[in-house]
Write a sequence for this structure.
């Protein structure tokens, strides 16, 4: 991918021009005070008019913004972005804008957002805001971001609270605001001021390695009046994106808009989502014909609109946004006539198609977080289904970029919320090996082999003693939600050091080292490390030779299901009796005895044991994916059912990883 050299400079407005960037990065257990009461929820607009004497054969816009932008040309929406990234590898989008230009006067308009919150979505609250762009027509730069752009804050958005983990703002949208229609060529911008260059720049911009989002217009399957003043809308499935409405009424009329992923028992919408998001906002009309203009997105299926007397809604649709998705895989031939497995396949494919955004996210509403751990499984599923490895590479690349914060990486990438989970970087090493086995890209494998070794060296130096990891200043999640830990007998409370060596983390550690040695063999390198000593220490610490099961820790006699599933999956059973005991346990507890972090390795552990038959039976389990479908799911849940977690997201990507085991690929070879 060719790197574009920008002629333009980063521009902003007077509020941000002289601000010095604030460091929001730190270790999780460090006590850092980062107040976010300043520069919140700033919608900042930019406009520039220019003339085109002859239509170009090729017109390309190179564009990025911090935190985010939406681009319009001559009143038409073009695209939005960029994908979340760190400032030292900040992505710009390369956009073909040829179809949007016309001879004569043209208008470029950009709506940017500086969110200003510490959360899992963007690197924000860092006082960095700006727009950077160049427009090239037939390889000649005809326009660049500079002080010839005009800027103005958008006054039509008023913060009314946040949802999720301070994930996004709820807002009142006011169509009476003077800036409404700013993207139109005939808009009067005479009161706007010249944009200012950012005085302190520390960005390094790079071509965004992933694609821009695509948008689908989804028509409602049902839109009906319920009573005099309530409009009920059902889009037939849960999507991610924006509610499009056109309405007319009196100036100052307020429409209350509620959105939901499910209905209450009485048929009303459950707009206080299980996932700690209360989707309720107001829209104020101008007195003419208005169009709702949400900037941030939501995840919902249903909408309910309270209408003032005399108000009329004339157009309704859902603008569903997602990463480009073209299904390249099919089910294994022997599964195609299996009605239950076909349902599970369709659920997983639909979840991947509509759930993956600019990055792999866990849930679509409460966090919108780019998590390394379960993201490894989700990203692999995306690769298997599409044959496109760009999402996998984004995960791997940005995980290694996060080592500027700590050599052991962070949990959630490209954001300002600092969390560290000990298993996640170890899981990433498995993903790197799986990626090679699917794609065969030896150069990419070689690129990261030194970083893998450095990562494991940091674990060895900081945490390993007598062959076991201990004294972890990272959270050990083991399984999530916690009620699926089966009484795991170790104090793994988040936010404190876990001094006790325990079975789950040390099993991941050995698996990561084994994967690293396999990578070394592929590259013709010496093994990273002899794993036998670690295996010996592991068995001496956690294997109960009398019961032929693993205990949770050095000091406990308790044996949890998850604490045995992981060693089984990673090939650490020392004898046939241990293997059989765990297989018997699996027969009793099945896949629903574990959750996010046990279900995937459990299935590939069964494949390693030559027991695909058991893995298949799990996919047909009436209490697993089929339960979601029975409860009305069109996308995978954050758990086996709506009530298996206290704040269940009804659009969560992790359990879409079942597609890996249904696809017509040699999964056994991927996981060997």
């Amino acid at each position: 991918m060719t790197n574009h050299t920008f002629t333009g400079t980063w521009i902003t407005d007077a509020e941000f021009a002289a601000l010095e960037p604030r460091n929001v990065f730190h270790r999780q257990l460090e006590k850092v005070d980062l107040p976010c009461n300043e520069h919140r929820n700033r919608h900042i607009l930019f406009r520039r008019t220019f003339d085109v004497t002859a239509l170009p054969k090729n017109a390309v816009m190179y564009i990025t913004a911090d935190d985010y932008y939406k681009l319009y040309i001559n009143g038409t929406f073009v695209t939005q972005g960029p994908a979340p990234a760190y400032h030292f590898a900040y992505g710009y989008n390369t956009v073909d804008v040829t179809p949007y230009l016309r001879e004569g006067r043209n208008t470029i308009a950009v709506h940017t957002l500086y969110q200003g919150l510490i959360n899992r979505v963007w690197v924000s609250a860092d006082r960095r805001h700006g727009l950077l762009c160049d427009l090239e027509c037939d390889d000649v730069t005809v326009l660049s971001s500079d002080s010839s752009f005009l800027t103005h804050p958008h006054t039509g958005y008023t913060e009314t609270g946040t949802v999720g983990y301070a994930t996004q703002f709820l807002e009142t949208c006011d169509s009476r605001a003077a800036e409404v229609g700013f993207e139109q060529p005939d808009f009067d911008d005479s009161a706007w001021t010249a944009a200012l260059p950012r005085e302190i720049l520390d960005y390094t911009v790079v071509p965004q390695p992933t694609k821009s989002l695509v948008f689908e217009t989804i028509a409602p399957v049902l839109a009906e009046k319920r009573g005099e003043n309530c409009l009920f809308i059902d889009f037939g499935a849960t999507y991610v994106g924006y509610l499009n409405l056109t309405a007319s009424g009196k100036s100052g009329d307020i429409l209350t808009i509620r959105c939901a992923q499910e209905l209450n028992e009485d048929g009303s919408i459950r707009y206080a989502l299980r996932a700690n998001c209360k989707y309720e906002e107001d829209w104020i009309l101008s007195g003419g014909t208005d169009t709702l203009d949400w900037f941030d997105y939501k995840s919902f299926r249903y909408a309910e609109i309270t209408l003032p007397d005399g108000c009329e809604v004339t157009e309704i649709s859902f603008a569903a946004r997602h990463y480009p998705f073209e299904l390249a895989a099919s089910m294994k031939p022997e599964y195609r006539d299996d009605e239950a497995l076909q349902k599970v396949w369709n659920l997983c494919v639909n979840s991947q198609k509509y759930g993956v955004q600019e990055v792999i996210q866990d849930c679509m509403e409460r966090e919108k977080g780019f998590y390394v751990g379960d993201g490894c499984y989700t990203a692999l599923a995306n690769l298997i289904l599409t044959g496109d490895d760009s999402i996998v590479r984004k995960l791997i690349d940005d995980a290694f970029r996060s080592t500027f914060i700590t050599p052991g990486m962070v949990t959630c990438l490209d954001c300002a919320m600092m969390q560290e989970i000990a298993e996640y970087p170890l899981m990433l090493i498995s993903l790197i090996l799986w990626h090679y086995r699917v794609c065969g890209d030896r150069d990419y494998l070689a690129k990261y082999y030194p970083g893998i070794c450095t990562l494991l060296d940091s674990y060895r130096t900081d945490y390993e003693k007598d062959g076991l990891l201990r004294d972890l200043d990272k959270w050990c999640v083991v399984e999530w939600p916690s009620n699926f830990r089966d009484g795991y007998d170790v104090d793994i409370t988040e936010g404190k050091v876990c001094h006790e060596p325990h079975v789950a983390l040390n099993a991941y550690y050995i698996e990561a080292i084994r994967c690293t040695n396999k990578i070394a063999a592929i590259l013709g390198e010496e093994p990273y490390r002899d794993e036998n000593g670690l295996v010996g220490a592991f068995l001496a610490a956690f294997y109960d030779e009398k019961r032929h099961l693993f205990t949770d820790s050095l000091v406990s006699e308790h044996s949890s299901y998850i604490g045995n599933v992981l060693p089984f999956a990673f090939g650490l059973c020392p004898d046939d009796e241990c293997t059989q005991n765990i297989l018997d346990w699996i027969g009793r507890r099945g896949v629903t005895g574990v959750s996010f972090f046990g279900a995937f390795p459990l299935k590939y552990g069964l494949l390693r044991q030559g027991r695909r038959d058991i893995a298949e039976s799990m996919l047909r389990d009436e209490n697993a994916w089929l339960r979601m479908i029975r409860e009305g799911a069109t996308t995978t849940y954050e758990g086996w059912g709506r009530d298996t977690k206290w704040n269940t997201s009804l659009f969560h990507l992790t359990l879409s990883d079942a597609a890996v085991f249904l696809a017509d690929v040699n999964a056994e070879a991927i996981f060997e």
Remarks:
- The two ends are 33 Å apart (CA to CA).
- The mean pLDDT is 97.
- The longest helix spans residues 442-463.
